[in-house]
Structures are given as structure tokens and as C-alpha cells.
TrEMBL record:
InterPro entries for this protein: CHP02453 (IPR012808), UCP028451 (IPR015996)
Protein's name according to its UniProt entry: DUF2461 domain-containing protein
NCBIfam families from the UniProt entry: TIGR02453 family protein (TIGR02453)
PANTHER family: CHROMOSOME 12, WHOLE GENOME SHOTGUN SEQUENCE (PTHR36452), DUF2461 DOMAIN-CONTAINING PROTEIN (PTHR36452:SF1)
Length: 220
């Protein structure tokens, strides 16, 4: 489970997002990160049983993302993220591509999956797979429980124009115009702090798995 002190650290960080405070509270951060690593270790084991593409050898320390922000080209110069991110790739050890992503943030935690903003080559391949096998994707995203958990898949960022190589009257144009292929499900603080948190989140990952399998198949 995610410990209350982990959420407490993040809550305090929001009001004290500076290097001086962080260094003075480094021990709290280290304790929170160890909690995340232990949680991720359990979660990887569970998700591997659901999705064989998730490597059982995935290093949980690498899955827990850095809390340090890249502020080089940003107006917001606060040095730290106000959340912990956990990325579990659906294709071995390499991060990126289709994945399961867990964000831990007081009052704003969520589990997500799919492929966010694919690179050009992958985006082309996914669109081609949709054009050829849209029925397979629709079977996944239109399934009533999937919609109940994740909402309308088509209601995410789309191109304003029709993508090259496709026509506006394509019956699947709303799917072909998507820039990302992701789903989200919110998690409240009670859920992520419960003894069954890993089981709950792994169960949601099992609902995301068919989408990730479709996307992995598209990009090879």
C-alpha cells in the first residue's frame, strides 16, 4: 500500500517546492521513494501475470520516475514534481511505447495505459492498424465495462485536420485523428492506501491490457 507519510510528503512539497526545504526533508523523500519502490515491485509481479509483455525482470527503481523537473525551457521554475510516477512498459525493459502508468498524488492519483503521443513512425503504424482492423479496437473500447471505467476513448486530443493518406469520409476518421491512444481511471487516497491497492490497480491494468496488446501489435 501507499503509506500516509508518502502522501504527506507530497502535500507538504506543494507548499514548499524549493531546494532548501527539499534538502531539509530529504529523509522523508527517501522514505517515500522506498515505499514507492516496494509498491512497484509488487505491482510489476501482478501485471506480469496479466500481460506477459511486462518483463518480470523490470527494475522497479527504474520504473519509479524522477521527482526532479526539467526546468530548462519552462516558465515554471519549481524544481520538483508534486507527484510520483510509475511507468511499467508493456514490451520488455525499455520505457516508452505502450505502457501502464500510475500517478500518485494526493487527491489526484490515477492509473493510465495505452500510448501517449507516439513518435511519427509508430503513429503511422497505429493508424494503419486502425484502418485495417478498426473492428478489433472498437470491440475493446466500446465494451460497456471499459467505457464505464475509462469513458469515451475518442474524446482525447485529435488533429484538427484529416491525417495525410486518409479521407474525411473514412468511417473511422475520429479514431484516425487521435494524437494519443490512452485511458485514465481516477484513484482516491483511500484506495491507494488500502491493503488491496496492488490488487485493485492490477485489476484495472487487466482491463487496459487488450488496448496495449492492440497497440503493440500495430507497431510490432
Amino acid at each position: 500500500m501507499i503509506q500516509p507519510q508518502t502522501l504527506g510528503f507530497l502535500t507538504d512539497l506543494v507548499d514548499n517546492n524549493n531546494r532548501e526545504w527539499f534538502q531539509a526533508n530529504k529523509e522523508r523523500y527517501d522514505t517515500a521513494r522506498e515505499n514507492l519502490i516496494a509498491f512497484t515491485t509488487e505491482l510489476i509481479s501482478k501485471v506480469h501475470q496479466i500481460d506477459p509483455g511486462v518483463s518480470a525482470d523490470l527494475d522497479p527503481k527504474k520504473s519509479v520516475m524522477r521527482i526532479y523537473r526539467d526546468i530548462r525551457f519552462r516558465k515554471d521554475k519549481t524544481p520538483y514534481k508534486n507527484n510520483f510516477g510509475i511507468s511499467i512498459p508493456s514490451h520488455g525493459l525499455k520505457l516508452g511505447g505502450a505502457e501502464y502508468y500510475l500517478q500518485i498524488q494526493p487527491g489526484k492519483s490515477f492509473i493510465a495505459g495505452g500510448y501517449w503521443m507516439p513518435e511519427a513512425e509508430h503513429l503511422k503504424a497505429i493508424r494503419q492498424e486502425i484502418d485495417y482492423n478498426a473492428a478489433d479496437l472498437k470491440k475493446i473500447i466500446d465494451e460497456p465495462e471499459f467505457v464505464k471505467l475509462f469513458g469515451d476513448f475518442k474524446k482525447q486530443e485529435q488533429l484538427k485536420t484529416v491525417p495525410r493518406d486518409y479521407s474525411a469520409d473514412n468511417e473511422n476518421i475520429e479514431l484516425l485523428k487521435l494524437k494519443s491512444f490512452v485511458v485514465f481511471h481516477p484513484l482516491n487516497d483511500k484506495q491507494i492506501q488500502s491493503a488491496d491497492a496492488v490488487k485493485l490497480i492490477a485489476g484495472l491494468c487487466s482491463k487496459i491490457y487488450p488496448l496495449n496488446a492492440f497497440l503493440k501489435n500495430a507497431i510490432g
